[in-house]
Amino acid sequence: MATTLKRELRDIIQYRNAYFLAFSATTGYVCFGWDIGLIGGVLALPSFQEYFGLLSESASARASLSANIVSVLQAGGFFGALFSSYFASRFGRKPVLLASGVIYLIGSIIQSTAGIGTSPAVGLKVLYFSRFFGGMGVGLMSALVPTYVSECAPRAIRGRCTGSIEVAVGLGNMLAFWVNYSVSLNISPGQMQWRLPIIAQIIPGALFLFFMLFQPESPRWLVERGSYEEAAAALAYIARKDKDDDAVVLTLSEIRADFIGKHRLPLLTQFRKMGESKIIFLRCIIPSLATFFQQWSGTNAINYYAPEIFASLGISSTSSTLFATGIYGVVKFVMTLITLAFIIESWGRKRTLIYGGLSQGLMMLWIGGYAGAHPNQGIVPGTYVSIVAIYLFGVFFSLGWGFTPLVLGSEVAPGHLRTAAMSLATATTWLFTYVIAQITPIMLNRITYGTYLVFGVASFIMAVWVYIFIPETTGYPLEDIKYLFEKDIIVRSLEDAPGGRIFVGKRRAVSVEELKAVDVLSMNSPKDISEELRSEEASAQGHSLRNSNSQKFEDPLII
Questions:
Q1: pLDDT at position 311
Q2: Which of 162, 226, 555, 557 has a CA positioned 20 to 30 A from the CA of residue 176?
């Protein structure tokens, strides 16, 4: 234990620049998490409902208006994520991230002033517009932050750095939940009671802008643009080494080799190249499939409508439902920290997704079974078990499907198509977040307990998908992950799965080391590559073959 703590402390000191880079970028996801946790609690406040005339509407009309207010931000996020690839490829990751922060701040300011000096009807339209506009900023952030962090983080801590995104989401959730609870107790009913939580979300946006000013551009984007000196400087900053250090030179040469013939691909060309081979298509579609499954876990149904869900389990008062929601936020945040610190790198991507998916599915099935057996919302002993099941769902979701899809997606996407693949994945996230936000109140109103059963079955399906089709990516350089999909994908995936060797028998997948050795032997350098690059590649080849998986971190490559 002491040895592990010493090693962790040494890594933190060695990679402190990389950790600060990840912290700065993922502050943008605090904005994302804050808005997810904010709006459900604001909608539950009687002062908000009274101001916008929701109290006079029927239950179905209120459900429809609530869904529209929640989901209009997802509509903006969808378009922001969809266009992120074009802007990030043309202008760079850092400038677009800074622009996304400005857009988010403008949207938040307009939201906080909606209805001032106008009628509530006009204020509602302003609220719709500002949430859509702010959503575009959050969409840009959510699409680019995983790409930026994965392209900059040293591979020894890449899972932890990329996984810190979900910590940021959990932190934003938790803070928003407790701000909502605090205003329900301490602010008298009126406009400021519901405006204050919206005003507070400006704080993480301002911090994100400030911290990102001090971070470098992605070294992979710089290499793609031919700015090799700047890329070397960025790598040196991330690894806290000199630009002439062997590790920096070697890493830069491998990145340059990976981008040969792939420089400055237009956006449409990137999307077209996603289908140039089955392997490329598979690597590009996995991030979107992972985020699609993530949305059908039911997590955003709880995030957006937690007060209503707790009320359906028998908790009646507004302050009590907001308090229960706040506890849910704390549980998710703490579990995400534990997973990030101790689980994501030791268990790997695959196991966290399998164990998390199966466990969260069981919790959803329990909640659905209880809701079906006790439709009258009375307090019985099973009520408390169901509330605990919601908290356990948060634990198991944070264990696996909370942030691992982002880590996995940013790793498996091909380097020259990563921006397009991740923008498509994030657009998928926003699209189905919008769908879930729209249909959840309708499902809760019409099929009641069936809502939870749908999410439970979906969780089992996603666990099976990972078990059979996704190989383990932990510890491999981004440039080597392509070999995991070269041959025997299902066999390799089953080999990496817990108990999977039972299904493959004596069959074995060709090892990455063998595939890489064959690739090295058959590789002929293009004529337009300089002698310097050829010598760097030769040096890289001498270091890149690893004897076993246990040695994946021992070569000098940085990222």
A1: 80
A2: 162
